[in-house]
Every structure is written in structure tokens, then in C-alpha cells.
Design goal:
Layout: E1 2-7, H1 10-26, E2 29-34, E3 38-43, E4 52-58, E5 68-72, E6 81-86, H2 87-93, E7 104-111, E8 115-122, E9 125-126, E10 131-132, E11 135-141, E12 143-144, E13 163-166, H3 170-180, E14 186-192, E15 196-202, E16 207-212, E17 217-219, H4 229-232, E18 238-244, H5 245-254, E19 261-267, E20 271-278, E21 282-289
Helix pairs in contact: 1-2, 3-5
Pfam families: Hus1 (PF04005)
Keywords: Nucleus
Protein name: Checkpoint protein
């Protein structure tokens, strides 16, 4: 097995740090799935309960997120690598990036006395007399997941949704959900083809609704073939999903990406998907199942 990836774009490096920072706050274990054309980072969360959080980075373009990307999986038939590590350890290895510019970050799978993900970065430090380029190196212990256990980490790439609506700013939602999470355990999101998004919490005493208008909303379910296309597209003018308020609020408390476009995809009364599209063909996906608890 072999894996080596290099990032040398300053914003991409910051973005990568932000992804790891977000995931480390959501869960302690991080799964790294290395594929020939993409790198997937996901948290080892309550997948059995329908909750998923992952980041997918396109690695097929040399002028994209990675300037160099080389991998060789376990065999030709299963050309992938799955490994797990402590998200906090990965974040510590990248901690220098938070407040300092670096020239590059290199990730490499190595084996000393145990498998490790080596993280190397180079910084340029200038003063009146010298220009220094010190290298910072870390080795994060990883567990390489055997092929027989890969199915434990499968994520739902193909999910049909009914309506897809653009979302307001993360700052606006962060403030709103911070208030709503103390009112009720669940919040219901409503999207309509009138380009409106509403967040509603209900208690025995009061119902509190917040409305956003002029957000583009379109049918999200895609036809699967030429026949019966209209049957495959949703005929709903409104879709709603009731989810755990604290889980949704926790996501927006940690999200901090550059140039992101947020979209909410709703499968009526079944699931909510929030997608954060970042620059250079990278995105974060979060799926929350509908909940019925009071």
C-alpha cells in the first residue's frame, strides 16, 4: 500500500485544517478513505442511526486541491485504503497552520514500528539577516482497516431527495439554532418551491418559527431513466424534516469554511442533507435522519 499527497495552495491548506477541526469537535475518531481519484474523510459516528458526516476532495486534478496525489491500494481489485486515527491527533499535527502560513503540507503513509500517517510542512521565516525554511514533522498512528471491515464505513453517496434549497449564511443559522436548541429537542425545516425556508420549534406553550425568503428552491429527485421520468421527480411543492436540534446546532457551531455554498436537501419526513461546497472540487456532506422523539 502507498499513499502520498501534497497541498501547496495556502487557502486549500487552511480549508483542510478547518475540515479536520470541524470533524474533531463532532467525534473523536476519523476515518480516512484513500481512493484513486478522491480522498474521503469521515467521522466514525452513529451510522447505524442514519447520521453521517464526511468530506470528499477531488484528487483527479493536479491544479486542484492536491498538487500531487499518489496511491496504491491493497490490490488491483480493491484499490483503496481505509485507515482510522484520532481526529484530535490529526488536528494537533496541523496546529501550526492555524496562525501561520506554510509553503506546503505533505501527507504520506509510512510504517515504522506501526503504521503512521506522516504530516510534513515547511514554513518560511524571515528576519533582517536570514531566511529560514524549517520543516515541521509529525507521525500520527493509524489503524489500517482490513478489507473485511470496509462495509462498516460505507456512506450513502446516492440518496434521492425531494427538494433542494439554498441556505442563508452559516452565521445567521448559528445564532438562530443556538437559541432554538434550548427551546425544544427537535426543529422542523420546511422548504417550499416559493423559495422559502422555515425553521420551526414547538413546545407545549409556544411555537417559534423563523422564515427565510428569496432562497432558490428546486426539485431535487433525479429521474433514473428515460421512461416514467415524471414519476421519478417529486411532485411536492413543500418538503419538511424534523431533526435533533442540538445535533444540527453542533454542526453550525463548528463550521468555518472559506467561500462555501450551503444547500439543504430534504427527503420529506425522512432525512435532511446539508451540503457545503468549497473551492477546488471539495465538499462536506452532513445527513441527519428525521426524528420522532418528543
Amino acid at each position: 500500500m502507498k499513499f502520498r499527497a501534497v497541498m501547496n495552495d495556502g487557502i486549500n491548506i487552511k480549508e483542510f485544517h478547518n475540515v479536520i477541526s470541524t470533524f474533531s469537535r463532532m467525534q473523536k475518531n476519523l476515518i480516512i478513505n484513500v481512493q484513486p481519484s478522491k480522498l474521503i474523510l469521515q467521522i466514525e459516528s452513529e451510522a447505524y442511526d442514519g447520521q453521517y458526516l464526511w468530506c470528499e476532495i477531488d484528487a483527479s486534478l493536479r491544479d486542484g486541491f492536491f498538487s500531487e496525489y499518489i496511491m496504491d491500494g491493497i490490490d488491483s481489485e480493491h484499490n483503496q485504503i481505509y485507515m482510522t486515527c484520532q481526529a484530535a491527533s490529526f488536528l494537533r499535527a496541523l496546529s501550526y497552520v492555524r496562525n501561520n502560513p506554510v509553503d506546503y503540507i505533505k501527507l504520506k503513509l509510512i510504517k515504522t514500528h506501526m503504521p503512521c500517517l506522516a504530516v510534513e510542512m515547511s514554513a518560511t521565516i524571515s528576519n533582517d539577516q536570514d531566511v529560514l525554511t524549517p520543516k515541521i514533522q509529525h507521525a500520527i498512528p493509524v489503524t489500517v482497516v482490513p478489507r473485511s471491515e470496509w462495509n462498516q464505513y460505507e456512506i450513502p453517496h446516492e440518496v434521492e431527495y425531494d427538494l433542494s434549497i439554498a441556505m442563508p449564511t452559516a452565521k445567521s443559522l448559528r445564532t438562530l439554532l443556538d437559541k432554538k436548541k434550548n427551546l425544544a429537542p427537535t426543529v422542523t425545516l420546511y422548504a417550499t418551491l416559493n423559495d422559502e425556508l422555515s425553521l420551526v420549534v414547538e413546545t407545549e406553550v409556544v411555537t417559534v418559527a423563523s422564515h427565510y425568503r428569496n432562497l432558490k428552491c428546486v426539485p431535487a429527485r433525479k429521474p433514473t431513466g428515460h421512461e416514467a421520468q415524471h414519476d421519478q421527480l417529486t411532485n411536492l411543492s413543500e418538503a419538511s424534516c424534523r431533526v435533533d436540534t442540538k445535533k444540527l446546532a453542533a454542526l453550525f457551531e463548528t463550521i468555518n469554511f472559506y467561500d462555501m455554498i450551503m444547500t439543504a436537501n430534504l427527503r420529506h419526513e425522512q432525512a435532511l442533507n446539508i451540503r457545503f461546497d468549497m473551492r477546488q472540487n471539495a465538499f462536506v456532506n452532513y445527513i441527519l435522519p428525521a426524528t420522532n422523539f418528543e
